[in-house]
Amino acid sequence: MGRKLRNQTDHMTHLAVAGAGMALADAGVDLESVGEFERGVVAANSSGGVAFGQRELQKLWSHGPAHVSAYMSVAWFYAATAGQLSIRHGLRGPCMVTASEQAGGLDAVGHARRQVRRGTRLVLTGGTDASVSPVGLSFEIATGLLSTEPAPDRAFVPFDARARGYVPGDGGAILVMEDEAAARERGAPRIYGRLAGYAATFDPPDPRAPARRAPFDPPSAPAAPRLRRAAEKALADAGLAPDDIGAVFADAYGVPELDLAESRAVEAVFGPGGVPVTAPKTLTGRLSAGGSALDLATALLALRDGVIPPTANVDRLAPGVTVDLVREPRPAPLRAVLVLARGYGGFNAAAVVTR
After folding, report:
1. Has residue 213 got a pLDDT over 90?
2. Which residues face 248 on adjacent strands?
């Protein structure tokens, strides 16, 4: 990252710019061979440039308005990352951002596929977030969902009887999406997989529901019908049956009632223990809009290598959780993988990737 761009942008954008450069190099893309209006970007972000904004507001309070960077007007904005990628790589085709928290990475990839189907030759997509800062953490603390467990190896243990919330993180993933025929025609050095299915649903808050209480009460968990519906619609979009799926990458909130709801949704689609389920985000924390994008990238690598990555630190499944949770790397001849994501506020997304 050049110093000028570092000073003009937030860490969320630094992550995306670095990831995009690596993704384009990995894809072997010569952007000059693609018309500038035939290449676009669909990125996900949910927290915005909170660290940048906090720093500039502190300057305003302590030194006055003359000390505030002019880039404060854009660097904090959740669409800043998509804009910077568009400028940096001359992506003058479709340029948009999705803002559905943890579901955002899958939503971005789903919208990117739509643009490719409409004729855009190449789309940079995925998501990054960087909310681990005092202001960013204050937002997350207010949800009441952050982990209350001080021991690092027990702080984020989704589906475990000891689960007490989630741990946040900074990061994400950027991917290159193309039409398959076009990618093969240009001699793409590697194709990790195909986005075969995608769907999104929404769970509106129940105005009659009481405020959340601690400690968590797993038996009151809802059945998450709309998460189930997202999974079923993604399978239908891919033209696949539940038996075709070799693994599920779970959203894995780490909140007991939400974990139980997800377990019930997976069970409704696949049956009790009907499919291996994993949550590699236990090694990174929940990355907001970057989390599901990273899960999708990890799922593509699992397809490539024939190995389901593990869920870390889970010792004993919580009562009522029936999933076949993968806790050690598990070799498997994977042909299709389902990725689930839920964003704070009621967003659900599901994506199917195939070899």
Report:
1. no
2. 277, 338
Pairing between β-strand 307-308 and β-strand 330-331 as defined by DSSP bridges: antiparallel
- Looking at residue 205, its pLDDT comes to 72
Q: Which of 39, 330, 321 is nearest to 182 (CA)?
A: 39
Helix (H) or strand (E) segment spanning residue 343: strand 336-343
Could you give the C-alpha distances from 302 to 30, 40, 211, 249, 298, in angstroms and in order? 27, 27, 39, 10, 6
* Residue 252 · residue 282 · CB < 8 Å: yes
Mean pLDDT confidence for 54-66: 91
The helix/strand/coil state of 183 is helix
Q: HSE of 347 in the Cβ direction (CA atoms, 13 Å)?
A: 20
Count of C-beta atoms within a 10 Å radius of residue 212: 12
pLDDT at 348: 97
CA distance 177 to 191: 10
Residues 6+ away with beta carbon under 8 Å from 70: none
pLDDT for 208: 60
Tokens of 56: 């500039």
For the chain, what's the residue count? 355
Parallel, antiparallel, or unpaired for β 171-178 and 122-129? Answer: antiparallel
pLDDT (tens digit, 9 = 90+) per residue, 77-124? 889 999 999 999 999 999 999 999 999 999 999 999 999 999 999 999
Helix or strand holding residue 108 (H, E) = helix 104-117
Structure tokens at 212: 């959340």
Would the pLDDT of 309 be above 90? yes
The pLDDT assigned to 78 comes to 87
- Contact assessment for residue 241 and residue 235, using Cβ atoms and an 8 Å cutoff: yes
